[in-house]
Structures are given as C-alpha cells and as structure tokens.
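Hey team,

Filing this mostly as a record. A colleague (T.K.) asked me to run one chain through the structure pipeline before their review meeting, and I want the input and output archived in the tracker in case anyone asks later how it was produced. No errors, nothing strange. Just documentation.

Input sequence:
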Amino acid sequence: MKPLDIRDISIIDAFPVYGCNPTWKTVNFILNVGCGEGRIDRHLVSMGYSVYSMDIKEPEDKLSWPMNFSKADIFDLSSFPVKSAPIVICSQVLEHLKDWAPALRNLIELTEIRLIITVPYKRSFYSREHVNFWDDTTVGIFKELCFPYSVAISKIRTKPEDVERKQWCYLIVVDKRQKYGA
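Output structure:
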C-alpha cells in the first residue's frame, strides 16, 4: 500500500466524528467520487471505514481492491449505484472537468453530512489534463456555489518541497449540518 500524503491525511482529518442524526453513533460510510487508483480508499478500509469508490474509468488493479467499485460519470447521478453517503470525497477531480459546477452540484446532492474536495492552487502539480485553475481570489466561488451550507477552505501542502515550489492544494469542506438562512 502506498503511504498517505498530507493531502490524504487532511482529508481524513476533515471527517466528522458524529453524524447529524442522533441515532447515528459514528460516521463510517464514505463515497469517493473520482477515486483514481484508490490509494486513500485502501487506507480508509484498513482503518475500519466502509468505502464505495467510483471513477469514470476502471482502475488497473480493481480485482485486488478491498472496497466496492463502480464505473460512474460525475455528471450523471443515475449512473451512481450509491445515491447518498454521510461523507463524500472528491479529490483532485474538478480541475479536469471543463464545466465543473454541475459536478459540484451533484456532489452536494450526494452528500448527507460532509463533502470534502481538494483542488490544486493555480498550476501547482500541473498536468495537460487540467482545465481549471484556482487561486486565493477565485477559490471563493465554492462558497457561493455551496450556499446555503457552511464551507471552510484551507491550504495544504503534500510534501516539504512544495513550500519551495510554491505549490499547494485547497482543501474545501462543505458541512450540510450548518445551513445559513435556516
């Protein structure tokens, strides 16, 4: 199993300890949308979480996965076998989508308690596949698009040399238990 990096650890640290429903003792079901090769998913399963992973394409080593996997399109909720989850993760996906706002709306719809997103700062970790770039000014759009829910945005670095390279990711946490105007 590949080790977790700081981004993964930050995602896990953003998990709610308890749900909003008093009958739930703890939150242990996670939906990872855009799971890639499932690095964080494997760790979450080893930590005792129940994980359902989805991506637009099948992973190369799907047969060795300790979690459920389905091929699904983030723009088409009818392609999702899981219709909701207390925790939804979408890490390093939105920068690949030309029109990412509808995907974000779908992620919010899937989320029961907390949505955890990561996106790179500007051209940090640049790939030719990236079509969206956020900075300290434009990342605020997440607060607008996720209204009326509470949104916290922080910067995380994945490794020590990121400081030198001026690279980081934004960790965006949407909490549906905190609703403005309610």
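Quick notes for T.K.: The two ends are 44 Å apart (CA to CA). Residues 6-176 form a domain with the Rossmann fold fold (CATH 3.40.50.150).
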